[in-house]
Design a protein that fits this description.
two-stranded antiparallel sheet; mainly alpha; about 65% helix; about 450 residues
Length: about 450
Amino acid sequence: MGRAMWALAGAIAFLALSLMLTWHWRDRDAFAQHDVLFDTDTKSRLGCYADGWVGHGRNTIHPNLCNLVNPPIRALSTALSPAPERLAMRQHLALWVSPLAAAATLFCLTMTAGRWGARRGQRLLLGLTFCAAFTTLFFASVPDHFALGALTLAIALWLFTDRLAGGPVRWLAWSVAGWFATSITITNLMPLVALFLLANWRRMGAGRALAGAGALMVLSVATAFGSAVLLNLGYGIHGIEVLMPNEGTGPHKPAPLAELASFPLRVLQSFAPGAYDVLPNALSLREPHHYAVQFEFGTTRTPGVAGWLLAGLLAFTVALRWRRGGTDRTMLLGLAGAVLFHGVLHARLGTDYFLYSFHWAEPLVLLLMLPEPGHSPAQAQAAAARPVCRRLHAGLLAALVIALALNSGAVLRAVDADLARHWRPWTEADGTPATGPAPEIRP
């Protein structure tokens, strides 16, 4: 069985796991209101995916989120169900979006590791590490845009790796990836363009690489917003006013330097969190709800065993990759940059770091990949201790998978128990029993 078939089999298995988690959260009524699960906008995103008219998925930040997801869901619901059942079918299909995107990200991760020469055993362990991380299990199972955003970066990382491994520039693929990344979340274009520039800096020359990166950026923005204007017409939305709401750039954090200083620990915490906070849900005072609480990872905590094991293994593989030099060092810079970008950006913009953690999950896992020996004399000499390093690396990576899986399972069970404890019948914002059902998706 070829590399792609093994990657596809793993993605399908993870899709099944993600769907089971998604349906469990749905049965807990966790998607019926805002901000219950770690500040995710599940209610708005379900409306965007199943309905298509929701404004939060059609603006400057997310130009085409609704436009790219809703039409396929409408087409599938028409093909799979009779007219009276199509609303329910669209709501059901909308729950598949994040699991599918996360499974596709796992596929890209496995293929990227294989393109860089990782053997089957290492690819399996890297894939299991990705799947066992709490951020992966969580964002793969909730209907929000972060799984799609992570997929756009995963595609960019494959193109980046392919170019470093000797592949062609693939202008069309980079252009489509840029359009897709910008359409989902505009800030995702920045790491994609940076990866293009880094991959081509030496092979094309600095001048041509800069010109190509600039052209890629302009083309991506133009096609994303141009297609948004055209696709909006299908929903009866004319002009560009809908793309420019009076929302600004979102919340601004008051102490960005302190946030940035906490970023390394928050990265470890996103993979292996410990305790979380259960806080009053402010939005429950403004909308009907099942929960008057919400869950957050707003406090930086010292990592547990899984977190420190992840930190140690990262230090081990990063040191080996830096020692190798050449394209291995370029690969390291690209992966580390993809992680650090979100640390710098969200030190000032946005809410809690955890909300954006799925974007750095794949590049962080790829940083754990053990470099393969090259063909130069220096690299061949550096590979003399390779059997020992390989056995040590495999053992540590297997231990990390087990530690992450145990940690994620414990946190998921705790969240589930707290959801069961805090659930209440459908309640109006003023605390009185609701007189009608939850709002339905529009036809």
